[in-house]
Design brief:
837 residues, alpha+beta, 3 domains, 13-stranded antiparallel sheet, 12-stranded mixed sheet
Length: 837
């Protein structure tokens, strides 16, 4: 390999003058959350969770930029903020946590769990961690200046022992500054927490020993516990492998490291450019950005004295200044602009580091990262072959300033360069485990304690994966705990397969004697004491009113007739007996209470009630009910009675009433799914019941999920306000039209734009926009083959499933799905086109 004279000279100096790698590490110890360097520098470490700022409204974005700008201007001089982003493929911790959260240990549940885990191992998550190190350096340390960047190649640092007084004073200053920074980021809406000693050491251990820590000796805190008989410094315990420095790489513990350094600042900056920059970096990279706050008066004086204002102004401006600023008067103009805006000056350095097992692999990836810099407002990067070692060291907490290239930047522009953006990671509890569109783990607890109510609405056009996603969501909700139960009221037959697999109760309602649903409970339920349960009585009266005269304005005396008849019907029954609807009809027909007018009305009520006690409706409503309401997964498919609007409406009143005891069990978490039931809610008195349930379900530890194909279905419903306003969670799948109506569901203009750009890859994945109270995220549903077959409603898939069942009637539902998953992992139509991902 040919090397030029400069490299040869550098290698000679390195061999003769540079200290050992161990002495390059500014690490003495970690005590009570404080990093202490041998140079006298000190720092605190934080883990930082970003925000998806581009999904906020334009007003919120402007407000954030203003507040962030103000915050940067308030940073104290000589403070250093050192951001490190560590992105890597694979997140075993999320998989372990998810597996541990599944409490149901049945063979069926474990089969689905293992299928999901295997799928995530084949197509792993991206784990992205953001660390913030707040650092202060000793007073005697020489500050940067605005002369040309330091291109020294010698590392050596002179250590100095701090006196106890100096140490305590520095530590107090560090805690004051870092606590203010922590609180400021929290006020800006970011989640931030200080790292424990063990977490800091683990970061260092894994960075300095990438292969050893993964394959030989994983991190254990006990190896680094302080021992009075072991005087070794932290760096001597961490530096287990000597590095090898070459022109093209920095080799450490079986990994080749290459760094790309920022050599030209962006021509223009905004929040979007930084987000796009990180996206094109890929999944496996390290990024560091260090900002140092110099002495402002001294820095401005140097700018003026050195005539560096032309370059500085080009760096400061959001748009490129193509003219060379050569007149001294423009220096004054620049400084006046800075003074009038209260902008602070910062030294900023940025680099990206990649690593790999081979030189070829590492070189290929670093070239991709080099091209990525153009996406950052047309910035320019350089594979810094002079400084791969120094740039590696810049990822150590106290050594962000090892990067020799630092640019002076105004706070206004710095707002857009900070790595503050990331997808919402989800709820505190893991619940359902999905992916974000960037393959990061997304935790979704449908009963998150922070939600004001647990209700949700879902919108998605035909073919968007709406039924598929709902089946997936319900499957994993039921897998999580035996104390989770689901009731579905459906008009499309989308849940038959899942009910069969989970051995749930599936009721396909039709006007035959195959099904009976008696609306009247046993006596001990209606009369728990001497008096009737007021809620039950009210419900039964409303039910009879709906059957007898749904559009009639019922007077108090007429309602009293119904209440008396109900009480009389139950009078002579045993505690475990229940009347039939026909018994109430007979009591009305032979009503002897009240005056003649009351008796006449009662007789007329009985005649109207015969519609539901005789004929086809009587086959359902006037027989003893045999349906199993104790199943954990219960589906009422009303599709086949859609031509009987009177019966549909009555059943929508009876079904929740029959399930009332289930909902009153506060130990259970219940979900009621109303799929396309807006058709049943238009201009019906059933809306009163649904409205009551929406308003009171929180007290019953229950949630309602309402589903439809387009926004108008909800907006046209009589109780649209109740359904939307009481549903803090919105699931938006791909829509074909009416995106502008999403504003009525609480989405801002940027969220609506994101919802309009969702992707669906049949047989592979579908994207879902989720608004979870005040958080927003674009999720990606990427099911295993087994999950796919449990949820698919595709016509070709269903036909293949029916064929397999005919050929193998001995197969269980699970065996059917497992067979199909092996033969058609992406579905019948898609398997020939793509591999399942």
């Amino acid at each position: 390999m040919k090397t030029n004279l400069l490299i040869k000279t550098r290698d000679l100096i390195q061999r003769e003058k540079s200290p050992s790698f161990l002495k390059e590490l500014d690490l003495y110890s970690v005590e009570e959350g404080v990093l202490i360097g041998v140079s006298g520098s000190m720092g605190r470490a934080f883990q930082f969770v970003g925000r998806d700022l581009l999904l906020k409204s334009e007003t919120e974005i402007d407000d954030f930029e203003r507040r962030m700008h103000k915050y940067l201007n308030a940073l104290p001089e000589r403070a250093t903020l050192h951001f490190v982003v560590r992105s890597a493929t694979g997140d075993d911790s999320s998989l372990h946590e998810y597996a541990s959260s599944i409490q149901v240990q049945s063979p069926l549940t474990q089969t689905f769990l293992h299928a999901k885990l295997n799928e995530y191992l084949k197509h792993p998550f991206t784990k992205r961690d953001v660390f913030l190190f707040v650092v202060i350096h000793p007073e005697w340390r020489k500050a940067r200046s605005s002369f040309l960047p330091d291109i020294s190649i010698a590392f050596g640092k002179k250590a100095r022992r701090l006196s106890e007084i100096e140490f305590n004073a520095s530590k107090e200053t560090l805690f004051t500054i870092s606590s203010e920074i922590e609180e400021s980021f929290r006020d800006l809406g970011f989640r931030i927490r200080p790292l424990e000693d063990a977490e800091i050491i683990r970061y260092l251990y894994e960075l300095l020993n990438p292969s050893y820590s993964e394959e030989i000796v994983p991190f254990e805190e006990r190896y680094f516990e302080t021992n009075e008989f072991d005087p070794a410094s932290l760096r001597s315990k961490l530096a287990l492998h000597p590095p090898l420095l070459d022109r093209e790489y920095f080799y450490l513990d079986h990994f080749f490291h290459r760094a790309v350094n920022l050599t030209r600042l962006p021509e223009s900056t905004n929040l979007k450019s930084m987000k796009e920059f990180e996206q094109v970096l890929g999944k496996d990279y390290f990024l560091t950005l260090t900002l140092e706050v110099p002495d402002q008066d001294q820095e401005k004086a140097q700018i003026k004295r050195q005539g560096n204002f032309a370059k500085a102004k080009n760096f400061f401006s959001r748009t490129k200044d193509h003219e060379a600023l050569a007149r001294a008067g423009e220096t004054e103009e620049l400084l006046t602009e800075i003074a009038s805006s209260s902008d602070k000056l910062f030294y900023v350095s940025m680099s990206v580091m990649v690593r790999g097992r081979s030189k070829e692999e590492t070189s290929l990836v670093s070239r991709e990262e080099l091209r990525a810099f153009r996406r950052l407002g047309d910035a320019q990067g350089l594979e810094d072959h002079m400084n791969h070692d120094r740039l590696f060291l810049s990822f150590l907490p106290l050594q962000g300033d090892e990067n020799p290239l630092a640019f002076i930047v105004r706070s206004e522009v710095l707002v857009h360069l900070l790595p503050l953006q990331s997808s919402w990671p989800g709820t505190d509890r893991i619940g359902l485990l999905l992916k974000t569109y960037r393959d990061e783990p997304l935790r979704l607890d449908l009963f998150d304690s922070k939600l004001p109510a647990k209700h949700s609405v879902m919108l998605g056009a035909t073919g968007s994966g709406k039924s598929f996603f709902t089946n997936h969501l319900l499957l994993h909700f039921l897998m999580e705990s035996l104390d989770h139960e689901v009731i579905v009221i459906d008009l499309g037959g989308s849940y038959r397969k899942l009910a069969g697999v989970l051995e749930g109760a599936y009721l396909e309602v039709e006007c035959t004697e195959k099904f009976a649903l008696n609306p009247f409970p046993v006596k001990e339920v209606l009369f728990p004491g001497e008096s009737a349960d007021a809620t039950f009585i009210q419900f039964l009266k409303e039910l009879l009113e709906q059957m007898i005269a749904p559009k009639h304005e019922w007077s108090s005396s007429e309602k009293m007739i119904l209440e008396r008849v109900i009480s009389e019907t139950y009078r002579n029954l045993g505690r475990d007996e229940a009347p039939l609807l026909g018994d109430v009809e007979k009591r009305l027909r032979n009503y002897k209470l009240g005056d003649e007018e009351d008796q006449r009305k009662a007789y007329q009520f009985a005649k109207e009630l015969t519609l539901f006690t005789e004929g086809e409706y009587g086959k359902i409503l006037n027989r003893r009910g045999v349906f199993d309401f104790d199943a954990r997964f219960t589906v009422f498919d009303l599709r086949k009675i859609s031509q009987y609007p009177e019966l549909q409406e009555i059943l929508l009143l009876i079904i929740p009433f029959a399930l009332k005891r289930k909902f009153e069990n506060l130990n259970l978490k219940k979900m009621l799914v109303l799929d396309e039931c807006w058709k049943l809610l238009k201009e019906t008195q059933g809306t009163d019941l649904v409205e009551t349930f929406y308003r009171t379900a929180r007290k019953m530890n229950a949630a309602v999920l309402s589903i439809s194909q387009n926004p108008e279905d909800f907006l046209d419903a009589a109780i649209s306000g109740v359904m939307i306003n009481n549903s803090p969670v919105k699931y938006i799948l791909r829509l074909k039209k009416s995106h502008e109506k999403l504003a009525l569901f609480g989405l801002n203009e940027n969220e609506i734009k994101a919802a309009g750009e969702l992707e669906v890859k049949p047989g592979r994945y579908s994207e879902i926009f989720i608004k979870f109270d005040d958080q927003s995220v674009i999720a990606k549903l990427e099911p295993s083959a087994l999950e796919y077959w449990a949820a698919t409603t595709d016509a070709l898939d269903l036909a293949e499933e029916a064929k397999l069942k005919r050929n193998h009637p001995e197969y269980t539902d699970l065996q059917v799905l497992e067979t199909l998953a092996k033969q058609f992992p992406n579905g019948v139509q898609k398997t020939g086109d793509a591999q399942h991902v």
